[in-house]
What we know:
66% of the residues lie in helices and 0% in strands. By secondary structure, it is mainly alpha-helical. It has one domain (3-72, 79-93). Helix 1 (3-30) runs antiparallel to helix 2 and helix 1 packs parallel to helix 3 (70-79). It is elongated. The termini are far apart. 11% of the residues are buried. The mean pLDDT is 86.
Amino acid sequence: MEMAMVKELLLQSLEHEKGGVKVYETALKCVINEDLKEEWEKYHQETEHHVQVLQDVCSQMQLDPEELTPGRKIVHDMGVPLNCPNTVCVTDPDARISPSPKSTR
């Protein structure tokens, strides 16, 4: 695989994982179900680990982990709506995530 393509894919992956960390941080502000919170905390930690691994790979390959490539910008821009600080559950505590009622069927 061409080095430029490897670099692009690594930086896109890093951006994706960094966006995931933000999604879990927002979700953890909203969740009220303890089981769901525990599960999301686990996923948040795993995603933070993925960010660290990708940053380490960039370092080993002497790549700038902050470089904004065209593909990375697209990944970032696609994630922006998911990481909005004005998310309803953050600004309205009554809209927090709780378990759905169980179906009686």
